[in-house]
Amino acid sequence: MSMEVAAVRQAVKSCESCRGTGWVIVQLEKIESVEVCSDCRSELRAEDRLERASIPSRYHKQSFATFEKHTPSQGQALLRAIDFTEAFPDVELGMLFHGSCGVGKTHLSVAIIKGILAEKDVTARFVDEAELLRRLQYTYGQNSAETEQDVLQPLRRAELLVWDDLGTGRPTDWVRETIHMIINYRYTNRLLTVFSTNLPLKAEMGSARTPARHSLSERIGERLYSRILEMCEIVRIEGQDYRKTVLKDGMDFVRSEVKRK
Questions:
Q1: Which strand (E) or helix (H) includes residue 164?
Q2: Would residue 20 be called left, alpha or beta, if left means φ above 0 and alpha means ψ between -120 and 50 degrees?
Q3: Burial class of residue 204, CB neighbours in 10 A (0-12, 13-18, 19+)
Q4: Please, which residues have CB within 8 angstroms of residue 43's CB and are 6 or more apart in sequence?
Q5: Pair 181, 220: CB distance under 8 Å
Q6: pLDDT number for residue 128
Q7: For 54-248, CATH number?
Q8: Is the sign of the CA dihedral 60, 64, 68, 71 positive or negative?
Q9: Measured between alpha carbons, how far is 155 from 184 in angstroms, rounded to an integer?
Q10: Which portions of the chain are predicted below pLDDT 50?
Q11: What is the pLDDT at residue 134?
C-alpha cells in the first residue's frame, strides 16, 4: 500500500464528521436519518483514483514537496508543473519534459498526476513506454490474462496521461504504429498528455569520439513528433544526474561510516 493511500485511509478513520463510521446523522423537520459521510466518500474517491493511475511503487513518495532544485531550469520546470496542476483541466497544452537522465523529469510528471488526482475527480494513467510494449507483447500469447484493448483503452481515454521515457522502444514498425495509435487518438480528441524523454528532440552533431545519439524525432517519426510539439509545452531540464551525484554521495558516506565501525 502506498503512503498516499495509507494516509487517505487514516483520514477516513479519523474523520470528525462521522468518527470513522462512514455514516452521519442528518435531521430534517425533526426526522433523523442516516447518510453516507460526504467527507469520507470524497477521500475514498481520491484513493481509488490514485490506485487506478498505476503509478509504480518506486515513485509513490515523489511529490512537488520532495523535488530538489539544483539548477535554474529545475526551478523553472517545478513552477511550470505546479501551474499546470493547479490549472488542470483548463489548460491548452500538455507538457514534454526533456533532458538527460536523473534531472527530475519523472519526478515532476508523477507529482503532476498525484497533485491532480488528490484534488480533482478525473481519470488519469501513468505508463512507462518499455513496460507498455512488454505488456502488449504478452497479450498476443495464448495464456494472456488481458487483451490488447485492455491495455490500450485506458491510455487512449484517460483525461490525463503521463507517458514516461518516450522513445525508449526500438524504432520498429510495430512500435511506431502502436505509439502512434495511442497518441494520435489523444491528439484528435484534445486529451492532455505529459511526456518525458531522455533523448535530444532533434538530431545533434556528433564526433568520431562521441557519436550523436538518436533523437526523439528519429525514434518516433517526424509525423508523430510534429503532433507532440503541437500537443505540448516543451520544458527543458538541465542538471547533474541525481542518481549518480546525490544518491551515490549518500551511499559513499554510509559505506565509509560502516568501514569505520
A1: strand 160-164
A2: left
A3: exposed
A4: 8, 11, 12, 15
A5: no
A6: 96
A7: 3.40.50.300
A8: positive
A9: 12
A10: 1-13, 207-208, 210-211, 250-251, 253-256, 258
A11: 92
Q: What is the pLDDT of residue 210?
A: 44
Relative to beta strand 31-36, strand 23-28 is antiparallel
Contact 227/184 with Cβ under 8 angstroms?
yes
pLDDT of residue 143: 86
pLDDT given at position 15: 63
Tracing cell 498526476 back to the chain, one arrives at: 113
| Pair 55, 106: CB distance under 8 Å | no
What is the amino acid identity at position 95? M
**Neighbour tally for 144: CB within 10 Å:** 14
Task: Name the CA radius of gyration of the chain, rounded.
Answer: 22
- Percent helix / strand / coil, the chain, rounded to 5: 50, 15, 35
Which 8-state DSSP code applies to residue 64? S
Distance CA 103, CA 238 (A): 6
* Cβ neighbours of residue 235 closer than 8 Å, sequence gap 6 or more: 76, 77, 80, 81, 95, 96, 97, 98
- pLDDT for the residue 33: 62
For the chain, the structural domain boundaries read: 3-42, 54-248
Distance CA 110, CA 128 (A): 11
d(CA 66, CA 64): 6
Angstrom distances, CA of residue 195 to CA of 2, 142, 229, 261: 23, 32, 11, 46
Size of the chain in residues? 261
Closest to 133 measured CA to CA, from 149, 150, 151, 146: 151
